[in-house]
Every structure is written in structure tokens, then in C-alpha cells.
Amino acid sequence: MHDIQGARALLAIAATPACLIGDQASDANDVRAFLAIQGSQAVIPPMPQRRDLPAFDPVTYKERNIIERAFNRLKDWRAIATRYDKKASNFLAGVCLAAAVTYWMH
Predict the structure, then answer these.
(1) What's this model's pTM, rounded to 2 decimal places?
(2) Is residue 39 located within the same domain as residue 81?
(3) What element of type H or E holds 9?
(4) Which one of 30, 54, 85, 95 counts the least CB within 10 Å of its CB?
């Protein structure tokens, strides 16, 4: 399943963010329209093949790097990267433990 389908489902049930920072895979007209209706700013770089390029804030988009680095640090833990634990509660406990140790070490 493509990430955009999961994003649509998540946006429908989650609290409305002030701004949503996404990658080019999240660039869809319906996602942008949904965010505009909700009063949220879409900070998504447009796909190169778009004819009408929507506004894009590259300065705010650079903040996405913080989240990407956090996920990459969590993936240093093999059990997290491979989803070794099958039960969601065990996986969440592993993620919390890895996040706490990573935070403590850095």
C-alpha cells in the first residue's frame, strides 16, 4: 500500500496539525485540499511533473530532517528495523526503550 493511502486515513482521525510537513510522496490534490479545509498549512514539495506548482516553504521543510534522523536512530536497533516483535505492545515497548536509550546516549 502506498504511503499516501495511510496518510489519508490518519489525517481523517487525527487532530488537525498547524502545519503538515511531508515528502513528495504526500503531494496529492485531495490531501492538500483536506488540509486547507481543516486550516492546516501543507509543507510538501511539489512533484516535478506538476503543471501548476503550489506554494512551498523550503525553510519549514528543513525541520523534517529532525524527524527523519530520529527514525534513523531507532532503526539502528535491529529488532525495531525488522519488526522482530509481532505483538504491537511488545514492539511499542521496544521502541520506547530504544528511544529512551538513544536520547540518554546523545
Answers:
(1) 0.69
(2) no
(3) helix 3-13
(4) 30
Are 49 and 69 part of one and the same domain?
Answer: no
Burial degree of 74 (CB within 10 A; 0-12, 13-18, 19+): middle
Alpha carbon distance 50, 52 (integer Å): 6
CB atoms within 10 A of CB 2: 9
Give CA–CA dist 60/20, Å, rounded: 10
Q: Quick one: which of 63, 78, 83, 75 has its CA closest to 99?
A: 75
pLDDT in tens, 37-82: 989 999 999 888 888 888 888 899 999 998 899 999 999 999 999 9
Within this chain, do residues 15 and 49 fall inside the same structural domain, yes or no? Answer: yes
State the total domains in the chain.
2
